[in-house]
């Protein structure tokens, strides 16, 4: 069991009016430095429940059991009985509009939230239509990956500035919101104002997993050369087994490659350098090409059949693959006791200490309608404070598991959903209003908690924030497709269709087609606002 862990989408590009780079308008730029800090809530850790495995340098704490008794973070309902319409995505069966889960949540809040969950797979079309109209719900959840086109612009024009209620010490009125890390709040600044309520994410959301039950308990690879040796040892095409699936995400981490927009820059001698211009990017491509040339990568992975990657891994067709850590628990539970997948500790390609970049600290946000009066905004924030209650509290259990004895039963300290719970409370809806800090909490899988929390604690000391971390940057539209060709190019290089040396001409074309202009734009942004870290 865990607070909903959502793998970070790519950093958002969203409107901002508080300064900007060359040619910046109210639709371009970013809020950073002092201007950003003044908008953010104070961070006041709750300390209500002690973890079994403490977080290290921002890593997620681990919990192997539910406390007994549960802690209380919201002693009594704080609502006035007002009614609010709440629109969220939902990945799973959408429950009936009237059900016991919603009734129990509203009784605990003292408010009436009328939930309108929509299919998350088609949410972008739905949210675009709603925001283009005049009837905007009181609270609207928008994942970062859905903020495209006019949806992005609507965030600044349709939703309330929450800084008057949450900035600095004002957040003390909402202790569970104050418990959310500052990094997550940084991503909630849109259009020069604190507009979003975040769903916090872990410092690292991806790992390279391997099948320890097959390869044994020896030392896993610790360098690029070790990976090549692993490939040679375990690839046997005749037996239908390959060492690797597509490891490109992990390979970039092993070589210290910068993330994607807007964090694909670093500063060298006072000049910004793009990731595609770095030696690390070239070396990562060359190494990935070696795996292809040695035929250590499963043919279906080479053919972009990414949807089947999990099946190839669980079926033993590949022994190492890259995936988000959020799916680890589900795979372990589905496969049973004999299945042992473990993450490789990251390393630098030469066998030295890894050089990792922090993932976006939030990628799903909820916004409040700007036309709401102050008292209703405060009441919705109180509801969000309830939803953000940390693991081990009564409020967390209601949010994620519904009513004890109705939606779930506790069996040896492990909550098990009833049929009604699966229909009404799983997946949870209230969690989208706001979420607690990310935790690793699986009472039914204590060994997994130790493995997962321990892995993250070992990685976190090596994590740094990229130059524009936490900044909601809007690049000018004229540069929108500038980076797109490199997605196809890196695949062509890695899979033998083009040469590593072909990158040089592509970078030259990028510079002449607007890359140098984009560099100047970011340079002015940096000089005007400072960095995000």
From TrEMBL:
Nucleotide-binding is among the record's keywords = no
Superkingdom of this protein's organism: Bacteria
Q: Which organism is it from?
A: Streptomyces spiramenti
For this entry, the protein name equals: Extracellular solute-binding protein
Where does this polypeptide localize? Cell envelope
- Pfam families referenced in this protein's UniProt entry, alphabetically: SBP_bac_8
InterPro entries listed in its UniProt record: Bact_solute-bd_prot1, SBP
Tell me which family the UniProt entry assigns to this protein: Belongs to the bacterial solute-binding protein 1 family.
- Principal subcellular localization: other
Keywords from UniProt, A to Z, are: Signal, Transport
